[in-house]
């Protein structure tokens, strides 16, 4: 019997966890250490005696304009005798971090591992003959924490790659792609299990991304791939540097943060300030990320001699002490089950326990009011003076002492879960993250959800000519899946009020290189949305004009509407488009890869009085871009009835949560483009 058990245990360790399991494990890690360490650490942000203030210090070669042979000579003196992998692992563990992600190769192309692909590596080119990847991989194994790898998809040293550019998001030549594959193969073959491969920068074609994604999974099925591989081939999405999404996402995701936004690698002249303030700032970021279901990756930049900067060590230790006490509210938790954002702090959840983390501002009269549909309070623990639940609202009074400057407190509430979690009666969007590359990524709307009673229910779908022929899938947690084709059978004209007045149209740009942007904007003619631009009046409904890559333009149009009404509008843009109505984003998506121009329709719900329509046009790949903005010729929508038939399983639920999306989208992160669809219970 004992033998059988041992055999069984042995087998279990040999069987690789399924993709889903590794995803779960990764998701529950929550907090990890990022390390930027390479030749640039030796320079510490200084070239020829001068601090290089432009750009990140790990990119000093490009920002200081250093010849490649001179930069490469740094290797001759790069001898980090104080780099002790075991002490770094010990620090990560003390800090409460569950894995370490190390820069195996940054943009400079210098490999921090022994490789057969180039002698531009730490083993062959430095006096110490060291393989830092090996040292860390082994130390992580000894210390029992995960090891992951950062890998730059651009390479300033490989002769057949694109030369240094201002944006680091260059295309990848076929030879460079092959070179990357060889290096990735070495990395995933020689260093044991790798928890994540953190690809960065460059701009792969969809095929290149696909090939690398498959290669990683062929070599190590459980290795999680970062979203910066591009083209939605990923296991976890990565936000832009030091950025946080506006809410929870329906995908695994991570925010990477540096100690100071200005650099990732060591910078000798960095003003660091006070340890406690920094620790609290980063702890708040960790809480914010985790309460939205993400993982937090906090970076350190060791010095050229390999030692960790004492300031960074102290910050990590302070956060670690907080986690030691309150880790229950962070590790293995899920996002808050509620969509609201709170000024008083944030919520995380583990099964039937809600953790209220008091990381925000002291609430008015010390009272936190929390709408908790589906949750009934059983027991509360923590620093509160009074708690009660009335009609689904929790009222918690906390003393001023719960918000002191030196600590962040946690209340834990044990709850009974009564109805489906986070029940919503409205038709609300669910988000994922979709990307071509570092600049061209955004929070995509992948489905909508709402709740219906647990019986056959008639739904009315309203949509525009653009949606005709699309197939929709409706799913629910019981597995009941139904499909509807939008047949356009019943037209219903929109009666646009003839007194509706389209005002002047203005164009402004070029601006920001990022496609992602907040979902609300504040635009006016006396304030331009880009740094050096001016609003220019334009009479054209449609226009194409020359543009550089990675440029954004804005079009603004005012519409005076005598009544609140729906109007169908034709819009168009190049590689990506966002439409705002009265300051709020109503539609946003990247267009298919390398699509020069795309026209589409958007149904706008105008308010009575003055309305403002804004288009944000995004150019990633082309030499010209353009816009289209005009009321559609045919003002028409379609209405279609559909009876949602419940299954036996559905009938057992108190209510049914439905999700709707377009069928057969290229990836699970692709925007469902159903912004014109509304679904009502009849
Ligand atoms: C950016 C930078 C790079 C840095 C990385 C970390 O992509 O180009 O220098 O390593 O962000 O998130």
From TrEMBL:
GO terms for biological process: fucose metabolic process; glycoside catabolic process. Residues 21-328 form the Glycoside hydrolase family 29 N-terminal domain. It comes from the Bacteria. GO terms for cellular component: lysosome. One of its GO terms (molecular function) is alpha-L-fucosidase activity. Coiled coil: none annotated. Belongs to the glycosyl hydrolase 29 family. This is alpha-L-fucosidase. It comes from Phocaeicola massiliensis B84634 = Timone 84634 = DSM 17679 = JCM 13223. The lineage of its organism: Bacteria, Pseudomonadati, Bacteroidota, Bacteroidia, Bacteroidales.
